[in-house]
Amino acid sequence: MVSLKEAQEKISRYQVLGEKLKMYDNRRQLLSARIAEVEMCQSTLSEVEENKETIVPIGGGVFIKAVIKDSDKMIYMISRDTAVEMDKEKIKENMQKNKKTLEEALNMIENDMMKIQEEMMKLEPEIRSFIEKQQSG
After folding, report:
1. Of 91, 86, 84, 111, nearest in space to 28 by CA
2. The whole model's pTM is what?
């Protein structure tokens, strides 16, 4: 029979795992959104052509129509505060690497989530059994 202290530890562990699962789910959603953003950008890159009109954001939710002069050189954000000029092919390579890194991180998070869910499923019957015994006795 499970002691009160053991049951409390299992319940506490279950709650911690539940919070961890929520945190991982939030990360999973963010990574999925970033992957979708990269995929959309990859698709758009293939459509960029010289002398083609496009819409360019200038900030604050405002956009301006512009004509592309040079479709081979673009500005690429390499960090939050740093941008560099790169050719389109190099950007495509970087985006593919970025996507692969994001997908690997997503895969690791999903694997961790499965492990947490498995541990929670093991704890559930033990906790339920203890609660039922407490209610009947």
Report:
1. 111
2. 0.79
CA-based torsion, 109, 113, 119, 120: positive or negative: positive
- State whether CATH 1.10.287.370 applies to domain 4-132: yes
H or E element in which residue 80 lies:
none
pLDDT at 4: 83
Mean per-residue pLDDT over the chain, rounded? 92
What is the residue extent of each domain of the chain?
A: 4-132
CB of 75 closer than 8 Å to CB of 84: yes
User: Residues 88, 42: contact at Cβ < 8 Å?
Assistant: no
Structure tokens at 134: 């407490």
Confidence band of 44 (pLDDT split at 50, 70, 90): confident
DSSP 85: E
